[in-house]
Amino acid sequence: MKKKLLMLLLLLPLTAMAALAQEGGIRGKVVSRVGRAPIDAAKVILDVTPQRVTYTDSEGNFTFEGIPYGTVRVQVEAADFQPTSINVKVDVAMKDVNFITLSAASMSGEIDDAFFVEFDSETFEGQSTPSSLASSSDVFSSVAGYKFGQLRFMPRGMASNTESVYLNGIYMNDAVSGNASWSLWTGLNEATRNQDVVENVSASTVGVGGMNGTTNILARASKMRQGLRASVVSANGQYRNRLMFTYTSGMQDNGWAYAFSFSARLGGNDFVEGLNYNAYGYFGSVEKRFNDRHQLAVTLFGVPTQRGAQMAATQEANSLVGSNYYNPNVGKQNGKLRNVRTREYHEPVAMINHYFTPNEKTQIETSVGFRFGQNGYSALDWYDSADPKADYYRNLPSYYYNRGYDAKAQAVANAWLNNPDMKYINLDKLYNINYNSTDTYRDGDGNIIESGRRRSKYIIQERHTDQRDFNFKTQITRTIDSRSNFLGGLEFRRNRTEYYAEVKDLLGGEYWLNVDNFAERDYGNSDFDKLRNDINRTDNLVLGEGDKYGYDYYAHVMNGKVWGIYNRSEGPIDLMAGGELGFSRFWREGLYRKGIFPEDSYGDSEKKMFLTYTAKASATYNINAAHGLKLSAVMMQRAPYFDDSFISPRTRNQAVTDLRAEKDLSVDLTYNLRLPAIRMRASLYYANITDQTKLISFYDDLNNAFSNFAMSGIDQRHYGVEVGFNVPVLPTLAIEGAVSWGDYTYSSNPTFTQTRDNNASILAENEVVWWRGMKVESTPQFASNIGLDWQPGNNIYISLDAGYYDKMYLSMNPLYRTDAALVGRVPAAQAAAGQPTTEAMMAQERFDPAFLMNASIGKTWYIGSSQLGFSLEMKNLLNDKWIRTGGFEQMRLTEMTSDAGTYWNRFDSKYYYLYGANYYLNVYFRF
Amino acid sequence: MKKLIYIATLLTAMVMVGCEKFEDPKPYQAWTDEMIIADGYQIVSVNDLKKVYYDEFANDYSANSITIEDKLAIKCKVISTDQFGNVYRTLYLQDYSGPAGGGIEVKVGKTSMYNDYKMGQVVYVKADGLVLGDYRRMLSLGTEPTSASYANDYLDIQPLIDAHLLRGEVEGLKESDYLVVNASNVDQYFPKADKSVDPKYFGTLVRLEGITCAHGYHSGEKASFPSYQDDDYNNLTKLPDGTPFNTWAYNHDNKQYYGSTLFKYNNTNYFIARTSGYCKFAQSEVPANGTKCDITAIVSFYCSKSGGYAKYQLVLNNDLDVQKAI
């Protein structure tokens, strides 16, 4: 008896342990709600630590094995369908959940970068790009990414370069600016629909990431839903029409999969002149699964695009034109409108991805990507001629009003009001000036360079940033046991970007001279070499269309890093620790020897080297299947970007002095609630960014010189709250919404050094920009949206939402906050009546709050296994055309005189406005 | 397959439609006498236009102004260029008949005007509504005065400029467009400078042949030459570092001052070339003392408010217009 009892006692723990160690599996079949058609390439996520992901096969089947007994959440996402999730109790060797049905999704809510008007980005500092959040299934991000995007919302107030974007596992943020490169694949919505998104500080499956989310776009044949898709769009707020066609074979029995997609986006819109689209896209992917261990994918895509840009305008100009959508980039030529600022680019990307699965616990991905092509941005350029812009400040009434010339001001105003052509650049005039420009041109010794031919005084130039970007990555994902896994990778990037200007259109002339306009003004003809942009050659002085001029240099960037992520689950607690260590090396290589900087312009600059690192950790407490609390933190050091590191990269190799790496810290506390009655996510966050660098070049009225303004020591502090929720009040009706409240502030007074562009003389050194406490601009710091989603049946979708936005600030000119600009002004407390104050110069403009309403309706018909449907989105139903979405303070100042002496005044600021009521009608077919 | 072909065709059609071409515009039509007359204007000479002022203010040498009421137009040739920066925001026009018809400054107010108004180009000025104003005995055409210091102001605004200045053909300058002056006839055209001299040739294009560049002091002048005038109206003949000033104007250390250089036939008949520190030839050297020169320039006139201290001045378009006499 005692022996039996002893045996039992010995066996009991073993039994218990065996029970504890028991693992099961889950299998199921994902089908559509209508017709129960199997859905292939659906993403099935097992919400455990480490998270596990699989994709359904051609029959819609999926399987997970090795899941510890217990309740787990299974999420399913598929293109064209609404995501769903179920809780599954794993208590047997293989739990069969049978069918998981997905309802067809509304086709509204698509984003491409045309969603945002192409702003004249060389002057607009707050350029943001579509957030990937819209593709996230997170209850806050899915609302914020799309709805908030109307007001150019930046998540947590952080710039695009804080978000990490990957495509097929390769890091795609731009090498020289750090910005997310959405423009490389915009328009290929079908091909890039499948995205893995992690929010904020979380680590992803492709890298440690940063502090503002990571997106990995799965754009290869095996990840795209099988079938033929076509869609036609008619719209009035972005482009006029879009045509898209996609065919995917799905993974076939012979192991091949292929996918092709083509698109065209054409025409202008009803609001802004000159924003015509000629944008196309092509995508091709071929994949071969050799066996269970090796799979190879080859992908090529590109989006050859030509599209116009809009420049912001002063309110004065808008009022004269009678529209807040006035575009000063538009000229009139032979009675036709022509936008002189157009983007034209074609930057194909080619990738090869190899997937090696030596065993069921290990996967090794090795990828190589190459981006090439051309990227140009056109603009008017002129030599020794009047500024041709219609809204040049001297062409506006305010110039005369401010000087007491009321009669002239009125005459100018009357001209604007009575002549609709006043608002256009007079291109006919520019052509005629070129027709008549046949003066003989001589060098400093009197030798004739050109005589008798038409010298263009005005041209359209194209400024190029042509990249050759090579990426290599290898990554291992290893499941250690049922509770832990490890991911690690090695990445290398080599980028060479060529910056140059090209003569695009001689506007009726026969040649353009490659000399520096400003150098000629400063040095005269006495030393002709000083005027020349390149003294190494004599054959590039007299130029024709297609020739390079002005500047020509390479930006060389080399980055490398190793990283690792360890995930472990201990009971209800999931832990993650990740780290990354790397380097960034960059330098400038001048291809021109500039006449005014012969010793410091040609060849390599000093090579800058920075250590980069990221340390990231999180702990999630899964209270139960419904409640979870997650604390995350990241600390990182990032190298400055090439674009901010050289004083005047167009003229010389001189780097910004005291160039430092940026240091970032972010902490996030998130609560997740998942109940049938409500899904909610609430987050508190704090981020501190220090030692940013920024370079601005502009004509400085204080010094009568074109100058370079290099700021360093820019610090920012961001903190706030995010809440997102979805409440299914009825089976057919849900309320969803999101609120983001933040406070994003500049937390330091950066220093700046200002140099004259045409010689190395220092205009100001280590002086201060007094902007501590001012707000980070160009995003609403308060954003909220609430909406109703109604699906009354018969595959009809109706939604209505309303949003309120506030705390949005204009992009600042740092010069206004310097001692030199404040000369002649006194603090308000000391000022006499009418005396100019320092506060008036330094004040930051806050936009009025905005209230928006949108609606959409759609329906899908099922014809056998095919779908035919439409979605109609209507935005800004209240047709409010006075909502400012961005803009900037101009860089110029004007000298004023008062009884107390002279002082400086700002130029009027320029603004962009949200479009009035607009629609987007999408008719789609799925075969 | 048919569907694929159809869609590919549609896409191709879209591509073809999408590309936009812009044609070069035609050259502007040049204005002619007939067109001006057809607009109801009477074409008069520059000096006849100036009579409108002199008839009103015959011996009144204050800074007066008068608005031209009648539909009078002048037909001129452009005799100045702002390409080299010495002429700034203004246009000098000479009567189409030649120097004897008179010359006048038109205060246009724009920069880089040489791109629009070529030397020797025919320009019509519809003068009605414009203001003839006097500045130290030089008349100019402009708009209503806006300050007490000047009798008229710049046109400035493009619609106004387009309404009054009409461009004709680019005929170029002929020999007859120059008033040729030499030691033997200078007194005929430019007698000793005095407030009461005949302004007939003020503002015209002259070629001064065999005129001597004279450095140092000159009788009747306060300054020595060449010299520049600083912010305090001091006439200085040395640079801050002590070296002699011998260029057309002053342009150093981000400061620009007018320079003055004297050219004479004799102690009575002389001209002072006044040059802007902003011009491209400011730092070119003036001819050496005693050098005989041939100069092409615009003659202007200046005197003090009371009419005293009168002098002829030269407005140089370009330093290449000053050549050593053969």
Classify the secondary structure makeup of chain B into a structural class: alpha+beta
Q: Could you say which overall geometry of chain A the principal axes of the C-alpha atoms support? A: globular
List low-confidence stretches of chain A: 12-20, 122-133
How many beta-strand elements of chain A? 51
Morphology call of chain B = globular
N→C terminal distance of chain A? 72 Å
Keywords:
heterodimer, A: 927 residues, mainly beta, Immunoglobulin-like, 28-stranded antiparallel β-sheet, four-stranded antiparallel β-sheet, 9 helices, 51 strands, B: 326 residues, alpha+beta, OB fold (Dihydrolipoamide Acetyltransferase, E2P), nine-stranded mixed β-sheet, five-stranded mixed barrel, 32% strand
Structure description:
With 927 residues, chain A is mostly beta strands. Chain A is built from nine helices and 51 strands. In chain A, a hairpin with a 2-residue loop joins β45 and β46 (866-875). The longest helix of chain A has 19 residues, at 2-20. Chain A is globular. Chain A starts with a helix and ends with a strand. With 326 residues, chain B is α+β, with helices and mostly antiparallel strands. In chain B, the strands form four sheets. In chain B, strands 1, 2, 3, 4, 5, 6, 7, 8 and 9 form a nine-stranded mixed beta sheet that branches. In chain B, β14 (227-229) and β15 form a beta hairpin. The termini of chain B are far apart. Chain A binds chain B through residues 228, 230, 241, 243, 245, 247, 262, 264, 266, 276, 278, 280, 333-334, 336, 338, 384-386, 394-395, 400, 404-405, 407-408, 411-412, 415, 419, 427-428, 431-433, 435-437, 439, 457, 508, 520, 524-526, 704, and chain B through 3-4, 7, 10-11, 14-15, 17-20, 22-25, 27-28, 83, 110-112, 115-116, 118, 143-144, 146, 153, 156-160, 170, 254, 280-284.
